[in-house]
Design brief:
By secondary structure, the chain is mainly beta. Helices cover 14% and strands 55% of the residues. Strands 1-2-6-5-4-3 form a six-stranded antiparallel β-sheet, with no helix packed on it. Strand 3 and strand 4 form a beta hairpin.
Length: 87
């Protein structure tokens, strides 16, 4: 099975191995945020979704945010995504 993030990691690891992390995020047009490698939700509201990642937490802010998908390792958030911050 083709895994987009794994293919990107293989390509990048040959050039810049230090930039790889234990989680991956892709923001699609400010409407969908897909995350692989989360460690659990900490806050869920229509304006803010917060979840743990290795060495910190991610904060997603926006309007009408919805948790469209949640598995042990992946999250898909939909809505109007205004800001994504990892602290």
């Amino acid at each position: 099975m083709f895994n987009f993030f794994e293919e990107i990691k293989k390509s990048i690891s040959k050039i810049e191995p230090q930039i790889l992390s234990s989680y991956n995020m892709i923001n699609i047009s400010g409407r969908i945020l897909y995350v692989e490698g989360h460690l659990g939700l900490t806050l869920l509201s229509k304006e803010t979704i917060t979840f743990k990642v290795k060495k910190g937490r991610a904060i997603v802010e926006g309007e009408d945010l919805t948790l469209a998908e949640l598995t042990d390792s992946t999250i898909k958030i939909t809505g109007i995504i205004k800001k994504v911050e990892v602290i």
